[in-house]
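Side project, low priority. Logging it here so it doesn't get lost.
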Amino acid sequence: MVNIQDETILREFNLYPLWVRREALNQIDTCTSPFQANAQTEVISIPSLDASKAKSPEIVQKREAEPASSNRIIPDADWPELKKKVTDCTACKLRATCTQTVFGVGDEKAEWLFVGEGPGADEDEQGEPFVGQAGKLLDNMLAAIKLKRGNKVYIANVVKCRPPNNRTPEADEITQCLPYLQRQIALIKPKLIVALGKTAATALLGRDATLGSLRGTKHDYQGVPLIITYHPAYLLRSPAEKAKAWQDLCFALTAFTAR
């Protein structure tokens, strides 16, 4: 039987209850699921990845050249220095309207790095990324692939200050703030990056594209596999897309295993 915690996570992804007979299991092409049923007659069926994507093909998209703004951050800045630079930064107009900067949180030697767009109201108040309703969903997304915030996981945003009314960060704001994220990545040396939403994806890739065209492909960020999925805030507004997010997480697991 599925335990209560797993059932809750499955419901978050609109994947519960979905049942098939055990004898049909071998005919279902699924990614490795964290939910292993013990029942003798029924198991959970999880939406599968396309077989051609689940085999972790070679990286097909590489990041374009870093923007010139990356030179603004001292290349060898350590964590304390980088955190101070973010706290003291007034390079764009966002700092004047936010309560505080939101640097990032988690394991500074993490294997997994999750990158969002920017702080919201709760994050601006508490100084930590993904602490509101979107953060609760992100925690469930992590739990679905047996990860936990702070345990081999680091969470950061492209911009470190909340945009007014939670609007999308403007191009110049991203340009000014992106070097901080780039330095965080260099310090963490993650084995896999998951970009949450279009803003994070296009900032890391250095080019514009639709989220739909970027999902399902193993991209490259300076030699690190980069997987792209929906932002949890978008999933809260569009719950029907949660099953697709689950596919992306399965794909991320495949990419992580095959790195």
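Brief comment: Residues 18-30, 32-61, 63-71 have pLDDT under 50 and may be disordered.
Revisit when time allows.
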